[in-house]
Amino acid sequence: MSQNSAATPLRVPKVSMRRRARRSVTRHWTLYLLLMVPLVHVAIFKYVPMANAVIAFKDYNIIKGVWGSDWVGLRNFQQIFGNPVFWQLVKNTFLLSFYAVIASFPVPIILALALNEIRQGIFKRTVQMVTYAPYFISTVVVVSMTIMILSPQTGLVSHVTGFFGVDKADLLADADYFRHIYVWSDIWQTAGYSAVIYLAALSAVDPSLYEAARVDGATRLQKIWHVDLPSIMPVAVIILVLAVGNIMAIGFEKAFLLQNPMNLSASEIIATYVYKTGLINADFSQATAIGLLNSVVNLALLVFVNFVAKRLTGSGVWS
Amino acid sequence: MFLFCTYLLLCTFLAVVLLPLLNIVASSFSDPIAVSSGRVLFWPFDFSLRGYEVALSSPQIVTGFLNSLFYTLVGTLISVSLTIALAYPLSRKSLFGRGPVMAVVIFTMLFSGGLIPTYLVVQELGMINTRLALIIPQAIGVWQVVIASTYFRTMIPDELYEAAQLDGCGDLRFLWKVALPLAKPMIAVVALMYAITQWNSYFDALLYLKDADLYPIQLVLRNILILNTTPGGMTDASQMLERQQLADLLKYSLIVIASVPVLLIYPFVARYFTKGIMIGAIKG
């Protein structure tokens, strides 16, 4: 299409475009009809909320509704920036997310490299099946298990620490431990799943590279370093870039479940605060403003990170 | 030496993942007194089914389980239908305007109005505190649409469309008679993804439901385990101590009950999910 339009006068493609549209509609009208249902769904549940986000600039009043409420300009945002709690939230969100990204990046790579080294067999299959399984367990169950296992009276961890003569402590009630518990239980849950992606990349490595490495007398470690790692690098970069791009979008579900009054100074993140401000304290405008701020920052991060990825690898994560 | 270290490393991975799971399952099959005094490690101590008896005699837990089954079955059916209705037209190259439509859909993955604005929409539609609130608002997953669309586009050759068209087969009949049967593996992946997400989610229920009769099992689990509320059906345990011990035991068996459906289909899931990741990885 674009090649044609470069060679012919400007008016021609415009007309042919309209004709193309009309022909497509008459020929595929059933498909357009089919498309309507999910598109209406997307419009109602994704795009109407985006429009509703204007209440961030209003003083939302249930009786007046979204469009009838009074405009207040940037008052909600001024309140947010003037609130010391907000900066604590930003810090908690960022630290938790950043820690999660950094700590959970190398583990699946190590697992995949190790699995790739051993022969196909029952042991390999067992390790894969078992490490993959926690991914399908719900967040509620994982958090419940974490609580049970860390329980000072009956938990598994108290057995182990007791064995080494360490005092029993309630780690969940300690704000200092919250981030470790969150991140490492996350790694426990997702490492096996993430390793699958790397394993697929490793299985696609050209066998002649291994052959060449063997002829050159490379040890197995050298083979991993010079053949395996470079082969999975592009995948690893994309995964890391995506993770960094989503750093401010860290999920509500798990932090909320692991929260208790004792660890709140570390566990209160933007998402949990939005939930409490909005639905418990019913301050819709304030909560929307914080959420909107977070979404915008996150979108900017994603666009920026995609730009960097394009520069680094020659192809963006999307487009 | 190198091989030994590799095996050692893998055994560590295996142990770290498996032992906590074993501990939970073993505890759930143990005697309440043994559990409370922390004597269970990785094998049931004084084997007993007391925990499951208590769990299954609690109406709250049984209702939650049945609710979750309902949400998962109906939700998956609706989600898969909507996903195909969106993905199939978008996979047809001759469809005018598919590029912009795809962009409109993908954009929702990058930016959202947020929690409260979405809540307002659900409220406006009168879905608060109804079963619909858990099924409809989150019905379409963008990632699943990308997977389905990519599959239709790459696995069904253009010649097939042309041949069908010459034979006078319309678009919808082609979808029903040719494309869907050919896309069975993809539909399985997408359905499993939706089913597991639906079964495991608790947040929408927390957000939209007030009536405890509508709660899915995950929310029941959260209330019992994390908020430490005791369910009904334990009135037969008269003594305080015994009741506390049973409450402890119940938590373990409840964790197992809430995970059983997912673990039952896990062998299929493991195989199909790997495929699904790969389909999704082919860039459009």
TrEMBL record, chain A:
**One short Pfam family name for this protein?**
BPD_transp_1
User: Subcellular localization, per the record?
Assistant: Cell membrane
**Which keywords does UniProt give here?**
Cell membrane, Membrane, Transmembrane, Transmembrane helix, Transport
Give all residue intervals belonging to the ABC transmembrane type-1 domain: 90-305
Task: State whether keyword Amino-acid biosynthesis applies.
Answer: no
Bilayer topology reads: Multi-pass membrane protein
Q: What Gene Ontology terms describe where this protein resides (cellular component)?
A: plasma membrane
Task: Write down the InterPro entries for this protein, in alphabetical order.
Answer: MetI-like (IPR000515), MetI-like_sf (IPR035906), UgpAE/MalFG_permease (IPR050809)
CDD domains (alphabetical):
TM_PBP2 (cd06261)
Chain ranges passing through the membrane: 29-48, 94-115, 127-150, 191-210, 231-252, 289-309
GO terms classed as biological process: transmembrane transport
**What family name appears in the similarity comment?**
Belongs to the binding-protein-dependent transport system permease family.
- Stated name of the protein: Sugar ABC transporter permease
**Native species:** Streptomyces sporangiiformans
TrEMBL record, chain B:
Q: Where does this protein reside within or beyond the cell?
A: Cell membrane
Does the keyword field hold Transmembrane?
yes
Q: What is a single cellular component term in the Gene Ontology annotation? A: plasma membrane
Transmembrane stretches in the record are 69-88, 100-120, 132-153, 174-196, 249-269
Give the matching InterPro entries: MetI-like, MetI-like_sf
Topology within the bilayer: Multi-pass membrane protein
All copies of domain ABC transmembrane type-1, residue ranges: 65-273
Q: Which domain of life is it from?
A: Bacteria
Q: Which SUPFAM superfamilies match?
A: MetI-like
One biological process term in Gene Ontology: transmembrane transport
Give the record's keywords alphabetically.
Cell membrane, Membrane, Transmembrane, Transmembrane helix, Transport
Q: What is this protein called?
A: Carbohydrate ABC transporter permease
